[in-house]
Automatic annotation (TrEMBL):
This is ATP-grasp domain-containing protein. The keyword RNA-binding does not apply. It comes from the Bacteria. It comes from Streptococcus pseudopneumoniae. Residues 116-307 form the ATP-grasp domain.
Amino acid sequence: MKLLLLCNHNPKLFGLDKWLDDYRSNEIIILTSSKKERLYSKYEQNINVFLSYVEKWTEEIIAEQAKILYESFSYDRIIALDEFDVYIAAKIRNFLGIEGQSVESARFFRDKYYMTKKVKSFGFPVAHTEKIDNYLDVYNFGRRNGYPFVVKPNLGAGTVDTYIINSEFDIKKLVKYNFQSNQFICQEKLNGNLFHIDVLVNDDYIEYINVSRYLHPTIEYQNNKSSASVTLTEKDVETKVLRCYTEKLIRAIPTYRFSLLHLEVFYDGNEVYFLEIASRLGGGGVHRILNDQYGFDPQEVVIKLEMGEEFSNFPKSKLNDYYGFIMVIPNLGRICSLPSEKEISEYLKENNGLGFQCFTRLGYEYSTIHSSVHSLYEVSFKGDSYQDLVDKLQNFESWVKSRIIYT
C-alpha cells in the first residue's frame, strides 16, 4: 500500500515525529511546501518515506504535483491532514480513481452553508444561515432577522475573520472585505454552552465520542478571553445527551469510513443546536488529551487504518478522568521577557500538566489578535473534577501572563 500525505504544517502538530522515523510497513509519500523542508528532511533517512516539495501551497499546484507523483508511485490512498486541503484531496482522488473520502463528503465538511442546509434537512436544529455575496446583504440579514448575529467565512476555520454583529454600527468594520471574491455567511447567534465533540470512526464503527465544554464561546477571543475547554466524563449529564446526538448525526451525514471528526454544537439544557463539523482532528490540546485518555495517537491510527493496517487497542472502559486545555491569548505589544521552557515544565510537573506548545518568541510583536487559536501557549492538564480543571487552566494563565513583559 502506498499513501500520499498532504501536510503543509510542522509534523509535530500531527504527531508524525512520534512514529514516522521508524515506520516500515507501507510506503508514504509526503507532499509539503519547500518552506517546511527543514522540518521534514530527517524523514529522508527512512527508506519507506519519500518527500516532495512545492514552492507554493495552492490547490492548483497541489493537484499538479499529486498527478506527477502518481505517475511515479501509483499511490493507493490520499490523506489530507489540514482542514483546508480536504476538498482538493477529494478532487484528486476523483480524478485518479482512488478510493477514499468522496467529493460530496469533502464538500459537506468544508462548505459551512452547504453543511448547515444538509444537517437541517436531516431534521437537526441549526442556526439560521444565509450565504451573502455583497456588503449590503449583511444589513439586510440584520433587518430581516434581528441582532445579534455572526458573520464568518463560508470556508473558514479557527474563528478567523469571524464577527459578532450587535447593530448596524458593527457592520461598518466589514467594509474592508471583498464579498464578491470571498464567500461569507450570516448566521443566527445561538445561546447556551458551546461544546466540541471529537470522534474516531473505524470502518463505519464509532470507536469513541469525546465530549468537551468550552469555558466560553471561541469567538470571545475578541473580548480578550483565551480559548479553553474541559473534557466531560460519564458523570456529567451532558455527556450522554451529546454522545447520543453525535451518533445520530454521524449516521445521517456523509461520513467517510475512516475518519477523525471535530463537531461543535450549542446545548442550552433542552435542545442541541448544530454549529459546524470538520473532517479532521480537533485543534488546541485535543490531540495530546486524546492520546493520554485512550493510550494511542488517533491521527497515527487513522492513517494506518486507511492503509489497511489493523489496530485493536480501542477503548472499552468508561472515562472518569477530567482533562482540559487553554490557548493563552497574548496582549498587544512587543514581547521583551518570557518564562523559560524549564520554568513552564516545572510548573506543569507540580500541577498535573500533560504538556505544552510555545507559539511565541522574544521580540515578537502583536499588533492584532486574529483568531481564537492565535496564542502564546497551548497547555493541557489532567484533574479530579470539572472545577479542578477550570482552576488549573485559569491559574496557569494568570501565572504565565504575570511573567511576560511587553513594550
